């Protein structure tokens, strides 16, 4: 979601004449779009902005800003201790960033010219005074009606195969560990027509795979739109997007297990463009911990849901999120999570150590778990997850898979990479059959059949099968 929001901000700046540069040292404007879901993400953003202070001293005309969740949660307090920060913009105001930036750039430029005309040459004044002269701050973390409809434009790179489409913002669930309802506000959904128009436009520009985004994506529209023929607004949306001609694959993330009702399971079995992958956050395998988290389902219901999803579509991949070390998690609670993870055999899982977040109920719970114990459980569970991931990848060796080629591999530019419908990464060489590197690169953005030759770590490796 942050990636998508950042793209929107980049698009709005480029629309008024700004350009992307490769490195912050070449930039006139540096904006950090922040995440608050774990303390480490907050600290990383603060550390990064602190380091950027050096650039501010060398190039006082630069504009620096915090955007997103941390900006929303901390507001103007982010200006204290970081005097070079000019802009703090929350999660409902991404569409205002370009105007704010433009105004700050112009004000700084004017002040620099004014200073240049003063009798004391600017370069002879202490650097702190010069920075003080250029301090204009803008803080906007207010709520804004209909902000969910403002994330709707994006620049595409040449032959871009995949795109995210934001369908809603906010969450009303109040899981006790989570800061998102505070930083992203209450659930608000865009209407189906608007979303379909955006998808149609992206597909007409060459995109083949769309991922619908929402904090609680499968509860899309529940406050705004009625059920029709017993189908939830989310299933109605899936059906409408599914009809877009030229769209090859449709994904969504992240759903909540309680939003997986029969109509959605049925949609998985009958809408062929829905890719065979569901990310289904489990969080814990212990009913006691799930209750303390306010997750509103039991481990038994989760297992039953996995069984129904697997029955609805052959070979569907299931990935998950798990928190270890939630307050009060005993050895037995952890063991229940571990056993469940072994039993389900997830395709992959993101395992997190519980991180207390300010003003959340879990942060106030008395029985916090020692960091060493969290880390031990984290490592132990990762081993279980990695083993099942490897087993699943090895089973695919020898098979032929449809891969949507996304571009050169990040680790070896001489190879291409893409994803299967089950969201597995596949790396394959440029094809000698196509004669030249340029011709091979035409595979970017295309569906390619690849024979899988081996599995290594988290990726599959193979050879493209070309006519
Ligand atoms: S459903 Fe997800 S986003 Fe909403 S409160 Fe729970 S964990 Fe946070």
What's the SSE blueprint?
Blueprint: H1 2-15, E1 29-34, H2 39-58, E2 63-68, H3 69-74, E3 87-89, H4 97-117, H5 127-133, E4 138-140, E5 162-166, E6 168-169, H6 180-184, E7 188-189, H7 192-204, E8 209-213, H8 233-242, E9 249-253, H9 262-270, E10 277-279, H10 287-293, H11 299-312, E11 317-324, H12 331-344, E12 348-353, H13 361-364, H14 371-395, E13 400-408, E14 415-420, E15 425-429, H15 437-441, E16 447-456, E17 459-464
Parallel strand pairs: 1-2, 2-3, 3-4, 5-8, 8-9, 10-11, 11-12, 15-17
Antiparallel strand pairs: 6-7, 13-14, 13-16, 14-15, 16-17
Brief write-up:
This protein has helices at residues 2-15, 39-58, 69-74, 97-117, 127-133, 180-184, 192-204, 233-242, 262-270, 287-293, 299-312, 331-344, 361-364, 371-395, 437-441, and strands spanning 29-34, 63-68, 87-89, 138-140, 162-166, 168-169, 188-189, 209-213, 249-253, 277-279, 317-324, 348-353, 400-408, 415-420, 425-429, 447-456, 459-464.
């Amino acid at each position: 979601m942050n990636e998508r929001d950042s793209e929107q901000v980049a698009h709005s700046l480029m629309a008024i004449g700004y350009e992307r540069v490769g490195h912050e040292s070449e930039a006139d404007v540096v904006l950090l779009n922040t995440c608050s879901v774990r303390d480490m993400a907050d600290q990383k953003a603060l550390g990064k902005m602190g380091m950027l202070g050096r650039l501010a001293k060398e190039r006082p005309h630069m504009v620096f800003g915090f955007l997103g969740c941390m900006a929303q949660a901390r507001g103007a307090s982010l200006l204290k201790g970081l005097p070079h920060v000019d802009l703090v913009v929350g999660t409902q105001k991404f569409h205002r960033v370009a105007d704010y930036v433009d105004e700050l750039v112009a004000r700084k430029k004017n002040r620099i010219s004014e200073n240049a005309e003063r009798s004391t040459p600017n370069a002879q004044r202490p650097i702190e005074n010069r920075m003080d002269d250029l301090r204009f701050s803008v803080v906007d973390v207010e709520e804004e009606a209909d902000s969910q409809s403002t994330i709707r434009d994006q620049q595409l790179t040449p032959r871009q195969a995949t795109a995210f489409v934001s369908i809603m913002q906010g969450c009303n669930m109040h899981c006790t560990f989570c800061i998102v309802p505070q930083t992203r506000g209450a659930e608000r959904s865009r209407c189906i027509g608007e979303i379909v128009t955006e998808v149609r436009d992206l597909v007409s520009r060459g995109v083949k795979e769309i991922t619908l985004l929402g904090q609680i994506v499968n509860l899309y529209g529940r406050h705004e739109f009625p059920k029709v023929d017993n189908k939830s607004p989310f299933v109605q949306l899936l059906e409408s997007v599914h009809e877009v001609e030229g769209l090859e694959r449709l994904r969504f993330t992240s759903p909540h297990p309680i939003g997986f009702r029969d109509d959605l399971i049925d949609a998985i079995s009958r809408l062929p463009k829905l890719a065979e992958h569901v990310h289904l956050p489990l969080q814990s395998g212990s009913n006691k911990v799930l209750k303390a988290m306010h997750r509103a389902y039991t481990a038994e219901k989760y297992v039953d849901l996995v069984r129904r999803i697997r029955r609805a579509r052959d070979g569907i991949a299931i990935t998950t999120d798990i928190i270890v070390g939630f307050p009060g998690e005993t050895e037995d609670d952890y063991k229940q999570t571990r056993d469940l993870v072994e039993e389900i055999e997830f395709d992959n899982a993101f395992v997190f150590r519980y991180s207390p977040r300010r003003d959340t109920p879990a942060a106030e719970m008395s029985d916090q778990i020692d960091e060493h114990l969290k880390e031990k459980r984290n490592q132990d569970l990762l081993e279980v997850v990695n083993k099942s991931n490897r087993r699943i990848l090895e089973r695919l060796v020898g098979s032929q898979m449809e891969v949507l080629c996304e571009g050169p591999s990040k680790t070896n530019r001489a190879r291409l990479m893409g994803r299967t419908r089950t969201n597995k990464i596949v790396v394959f060489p440029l094809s000698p059959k196509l004669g030249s590197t340029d011709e091979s690169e035409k595979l970017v953005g295309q569906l390619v059949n690849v024979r899988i030759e081996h599995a290594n770590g988290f990726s599959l490796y193979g050879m493209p099968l070309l006519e």
